[in-house]
Amino acid sequence: MISPEQVQTIIQERLANAEVKVVGDGQHFEAIIVSPDFAGKNKVKQHQMVYGVLQDELASETIHALSLKTFTPEAWQATGQTA
């Protein structure tokens, strides 16, 4: 089983400049990711970027399910939430 902290670390290491928060139960996870690298990309492309950095973990079913919420820093700031 993999912890939410481990998933968070993997994303942060492989997706430079990302602020990441992950919660989950060891198989099912929800991630909020804020990255300037998402600028100019639609949600599908943003999610593909994240799935790409987790390709091995998803293929091996270490991560069974992953829900993503992705934002550019500007879009995140507009939500009024804090990281």
From TrEMBL:
Gene3D superfamilies: BolA-like
Entry-linked InterPro entries: BolA, BolA-like_sf, BolA/IbaG_stress_morph_reg
Highest taxon above the source species: Bacteria
Record-stated family: Belongs to the BolA/IbaG family.
Protein name per Swiss-Prot or TrEMBL: BolA/IbaG family iron-sulfur metabolism protein
